Amino acid sequence: MNIPKTPGGERPRGTVRDGSVCTSQPGSPQVPRAKVKRILAILDELYPFDGVCFLDYDHAQPWQLLFATILSAQCTDARVNQVTASLFRSFPTLEAFAVAPISSLEEAVRSTGFFRAKANHLQTSAKLLLANFGGQLPSDIDQLTSLSGVGRKTANVVRGHIFKLPSVVVDTHVMRVSRKLGLTQNKDPVKIEHDLMKILPKASWIPYNQQIITHGRLVCVARSPKCGECVFNSQGLCGG
Ligand code: SF4
Fold first, then answer.
1. How many folded domains does the chain comprise?
2. pLDDT tens for residues 49-71?
3. 3-state secondary structure at position 138
4. Which of 34, 50, 112, 208 could join 16 in a cystine, given CB atoms 3.0 to 4.6 angstroms apart?
5. Same domain, 155 and 69
6. Cα of 39 to ligand 1 centre, how many Å?
């Protein structure tokens, strides 16, 4: 798709020629289907989805992605990748995590922040995976969220990347940018997840997360969004 360089504000923001709408749950806007389509087309052009996860892990050891995602809370992916490179060398199996002195796990994950809680989550999850799931990562969201430190965001990362199950991951970038684009009015991540599941086609669920994260890092930066450079602004698709 060729995105024309039109100046912002030529058309009232958020309006489209196509009057059809996608409905979402109470408290959320009725989002015109044409608007959703245009947003997704722009994301595909700006940030082609390559399926590569931002977090590094050994694909033969899928539990590593779960652990890396637990560590990514309030931490950058770059920092997590630095930490897990040595963490997974020192503790190469779930059994190693389960029996490790908690102080050595804490030391190993210290630079990711909240290191005591995170070390505890890793060890408890390792024990639960061994005790309840035969050392295998479950794909069921209720089973995943029964693990320690695993909420819906972390569970959906695993479901999307490991099991290729359509999943909407709602992190801080997805919350912020989705609201600005008018795709939800909710602030609660679970409500936002359900809003996005209703208005986005399933094929877009996994790409949308990574594309919005990239846009949130490069353009729609939390503290100082670069609206003057943003195509969603020039296309009249953002309420700001
Ligand atoms: S950078 Fe500005 S125009 Fe672009 S999505 Fe963010 S708030 Fe909207």
1. 2
2. 988 899 999 999 999 999 999 99
3. coil
4. 34
5. yes
6. 12
